[in-house]
From TrEMBL:
Record's GO cellular component terms: cytoplasm
Chain positions covered by the region annotation Disordered: 1-20
InterPro entries xrefs: Thioredoxin, Thioredoxin-like_sf, Thioredoxin_CS, Thioredoxin_domain
Keyword Transport belongs to the record: yes
Domain Thioredoxin: 6-119
Record flagged with keyword Acetylation: no
PROSITE patterns attached to this UniProt entry: THIOREDOXIN_1, THIOREDOXIN_2
Species this protein is from: Halosimplex carlsbadense 2-9-1
Protein name, as recorded: Thioredoxin
GO molecular function annotation: protein-disulfide reductase activity
């Protein structure tokens, strides 16, 4: 995973997932991008590891920015979004939460979901 500078992030939708730490950082990331797919995950979660290459591909190949939120390090943030199981994906469009998906989803399903908000 590459880390990009703030100027790169401001220039276009990031093409790699961005690690988020806290509500303020998530709010700023959502405000800076039209469509954001937030991946609430845990390092110990097998299904989360299965989903990781999918969200990396979606970050690189779709118009959505991808945020990664470690639920163990961000328990309050996970609680604020009602995350009860991992992985949980929350989709934001124009600053508003529009979708929530719990569990591993196929790349095609997630691409279609993102496509509804990026086209």
């Amino acid at each position: 995973m590459t880390v990009e500078s703030a100027s790169e992030a401001d220039a276009a939708t990031p093409d790699s997932p961005r690690q988020i730490d806290g509500q303020t950082e998530l709010d700023e990331f959502v405000a800076a991008n039209d469509v954001v797919l937030a991946d609430f995950y845990a390092d110990w979660c097998g299904p989360c590891k299965m989903l990781e290459p999918v969200v990396e591909t979606l970050a690189a190949e779709t118009g959505a920015a991808v945020a990664k939120v470690d639920v163990d390090a961000n328990q309050q943030l996970a609680g604020a979004y009602g995350v009860r199981g991992v992985p949980t994906l929350v989709l934001f469009a124009d600053g508003e939460q529009v979708e929530e998906i719990v569990g591993v989803q196929g790349e095609d399903q997630l691409r279609a979901l993102i496509g509804r908000y990026t086209e």
